[in-house]
Amino acid sequence: MSDEDLDGFHVGKSRRGRWLAGAAGVSAVGAVAGATVAGSMLNRRAVIDDPFADEDFETVDGDRSYLVTTPDGVPLAVREVGPTDAPVTVVFAHGFCLRMGAFHFQRMRLSDEWGTQVRMIFYDQRGHGRSGAAPPETYTVMQLGKDLETVLQVIAPRGPIVLVGHSMGGMTVLSHARQFPQHYGGRIAGAALIASAAEGVAESPLGEILNNPALEAVLRAARSAPKLVQRGRTAARSLIGPILRAASYSDMRVSRSIVAFSEKMMLGTPIPTMVEFLHALQVHDETAALPTLAKIPTLIVCGDHDLVTPAEYSRKMAEVLPESELVIVAKAGHLVLLERPASVNDGLVRLVKHATPGRFTALSQRWRGRVLRRD
Q1: Strands 188-194 and 298-303
Q2: Are 244 and 167 in contact (CB under 8 A)?
Q3: What predicted TM-score, i.e. pTM, was given to this entire model?
Q4: Residues 108, 264, 280, 31, CA torsion sign
Q5: Distances (CA, A) of 155 to 68, 107, 119, 131, 140
Q6: What is the DSSP letter of 189?
Q7: pLDDT mean over 68-90
Q8: With DSSP H G I counted as helix, E B as strand and the rest as coil, what are the percentages for the chain, rounded to 5?
Q9: Positive or negative CA dihedral for 158, 350, 125, 181?
Q10: At 88, which helix (H) or strand (E)?
């Protein structure tokens, strides 16, 4: 291998120094994160067992399954929980480098809470999880909004709907609202944006870290020489993986099983999916959707230690959404739905009650009396 070819990615001499400097900076972030993880986990092993050591994080895979094919031929994997004729349907859209299983704690706790009153729909975004790959040029937030519309048309053609999106899934909801505003205030009765943003991800702390020549080289290789991507999997993941892990949680005093589960989702994401959607997030701007969301009750949740979509982005959205509830979760990072699920679940219960009054009988007061000891 020549000194200009790094694990399959060609870097010109004039840029090699900047590339290595960028890689060194990213590696430093990963090293700090890794040291934090190692130290924290060693301390925790001495004093506490992992409460989720026996948790089956793949439960959603056993739910009723469907394949929905988009107009451009991409099969989307869908899972369904609850009666098909339930009074309300709640649809969940996951985030970047994750899959529908990221909503594990919502699927488990809320199916218990809502019972037969609510049907929950989970699906994998294109290029993620069990859904099919697609042409790289379709890995955009705009296309994700169109995919959501396809899922709604096929799986939930009638009845009131509440949309829930985490991170890129929240941007998917915003994109859908901009492209299909006629549904809002009618069939779409409510929405939840969890650890998301209408714009500005490129200016976030994570965005600043990602803006370096090393990642630019990975992105160029994935676009211009797809056959080299497989050769460069190690380089790409060594650059992006530590950043995603460092940004996921407020600190690493979190269940080792949860950390392992989230890493499994991230590392299982195909490289083209990773790099193309990374670019899509950096140029993302769906502020035009906010007036549409202003028509319906909206829940906005964010961790106070989120490096990907900092709390200020959630506050900005809440300021222009008169029917919104803003929940800033203490000691939580970007994966607040896994790190502090009770705060997210409580908010979703309130949202559905507010968005669909009279649609179903009052939900049991069990929720108030039940403490999620493991949250």
Answers
A1: parallel
A2: no
A3: 0.82
A4: positive
A5: 8, 17, 11, 16, 22
A6: E
A7: 97
A8: 50, 15, 35
A9: positive
A10: strand 88-93
Does the pLDDT of residue 174 top 50, yes or no?
yes
Residue found under tokens 């160029």? 220
- The DSSP secondary-structure symbol of 199 reads B
CA–CA separation, 329 and 359 (whole Å): 29
Closest CA to 268 of 91, 61, 75, 101: 101
Task: Tell me the C-alpha distance between 111 and 229, whole Å.
Answer: 40
Q: How far is CA 271 from the centre of its chain?
A: 17
Q: What is the pLDDT of residues 220-257, one digit of tens each?
A: 666 666 555 555 556 566 666 666 666 788 766 789 99
Residue located via tokens 């809440």: 318
**pLDDT level of residue 209 (50, 70, 90 thresholds):** low
Q: What span, in angstroms and rounded, lies between the C-alpha atoms of 145 and 191? A: 14
- The token pair at 166 is 């985490």
Alpha helices in the chain (DSSP H): 13-47, 104-114, 141-155, 168-179, 205-210, 213-224, 227-231, 233-248, 256-267, 271-282, 290-293, 311-319, 336-339, 341-355, 366-369
Give the residue range(s) of CATH 3.40.50.1820 domains in the chain.
Answer: 59-202+286-358
- Give the pLDDT confidence of 112-163 residue by residue, as tens digits: 999 999 999 999 999 999 999 999 899 999 999 999 999 999 999 999 999 9
pLDDT band at 275 (very low <50, low <70, confident <90, very high): confident
100-114, 184-198, 207-221: lowest mean pLDDT where? 207-221
d(CA 131, CA 277): 15
Stretch 200-215: mean pLDDT, rounded? 66
Compute the distance between CA of residue 231 and CA of residue 225 in angstroms, rounded to an integer: 11
Q: How confident is the model at residue 283 (pLDDT cuts 50, 70, 90)?
A: confident
**How long, in residues, is the chain?**
375
* Superfamily the domain 59-202+286-358 falls into: Alpha/Beta hydrolase fold, catalytic domain (3.40.50.1820)
